[in-house]
Amino acid sequence: MQQRLDRVVTAGGATVAYSSAGAGRPLVYVMGWLTHLELGWELPAERALYEALGAGCRLVRYDRAGCGLSPAADRPASLDFELEQLAAVTAALREPFDLMGTSMGAPVAAAWAAQHPETVRRLVLYGGWARGDELSPPSVREHVLGLVEAHWGLGSDVLADIFAPDADGPTRAAMARYQRACSTAATARELLELSYRLDVRDQLARVRAPTLVVHRTGDRAAPVAQAEALAAGISGAGLVLLPGRSHLPYAGDRDELVRVVRRFLGLPAARRRTGTLTARQREVAALVSQGCTNREIAARLGIDERSAEGHVERIRLRLGFRSRAQIAAWFAAQ
What would you give as a GO molecular function for this chain, any one (predicted)? Predict the structure, then answer.
């Protein structure tokens, strides 16, 4: 699957980059806190999620202002501005679409469905919340905001640990680098602060689209109580709780999340990845089984360390594993 990049301009003059992948009925995906359409597509775990969700439909994603390929706008972050950007991206669809919001994108998607019921066919809310100031105590929120603003490197590391505790160390390090590449520290802080301010409780009763709320029981970034609040506030909404601690949808048991979402949207089950590795991947798996680090693998194969890291991640995804130890055990069994 390949993505096609384009740009739109909002009613207020802000430029928003968006991507389309696949063909068929539109599935508009409102992403979380920080995004980068190109870099996210290059991360094996994140791309695997999008390819699985987008099979048999047209997956539409976008970078909010100040993130990724979308330039910063000279206006403060707000729910109204979020909805203005979503309006610009969906203006050309000209048909009702499925809408999925994840993390910070969940309350945005819920507000859109409440205000534009004629545009939304089905609504999926993953890892979201109804009231942002209940995500954590005020002292914790202020500490995290200050850390992101003053020490973006350390702040991104801390948040990667919170967002994806089930991922291994190298994967979390890659996620932290990805966050820093998505935006400046100032933008990251502003959008995180908006996350804490978002409150859509008064809009939930106006949602008319069939709705599914999905949440992981051990999510460290958004408590299950917020998923329950979303489901309770939307008439007829279903609530599915999945095991796991990772907040990021592509971390942890991605396949089960995709299965639940596709079934609700009326899409056929996504094809499972096979356990077949390429010749290069088998070389890397052999070195992993010998206990080599990514740096040692890179030196042995004459590639850079980031490429080695990418090979290991692709092997893990293809085999359905969560750790290097599982790769090593699998290779030994071969």
Answer: catalytic activity
Q: Where are the alpha helices (DSSP H) in the chain?
A: 37-42, 44-54, 79-90, 105-115, 138-150, 152-163, 169-182, 185-197, 224-233, 254-265, 279-289, 294-301, 305-319, 324-333
Residue 186's alpha-carbon distances to 191, 201, 273, 300, in angstroms, are: 9, 28, 39, 40
Distance CA 321, CA 73 (A): 41
Query: Does one domain contain both 225 and 307?
Result: no
Give the Cβ contact number of residue 104 at 10 Å.
27
**CATH code of the domain in which 236 resides:** 3.40.50.1820
DSSP structure class, residue 131: B
Q: Do the strands 15-22 and 3-9 form a parallel or antiparallel pair, or are they unpaired?
A: antiparallel
Domain count, the chain: 2
Beta bridge mates, 22: 58
pLDDT digits (tens, 9 = 90+) for 219-255: 999 999 999 999 999 999 999 999 999 999 998 888 9
* Whether the predicted pLDDT of 325 surpasses 90: no
- Report the distance separating Cα 310 and Cα 308, nearest Å: 5
Do residues 253 and 228 make contact, with C-beta atoms less than 8 angstroms apart?
Answer: no
In tens, the pLDDT along 56-114 reads: 999 999 999 999 999 999 999 999 999 999 999 999 898 999 999 999 999 999 999 99
The counts of H helices and E strands in the chain are 14, 8
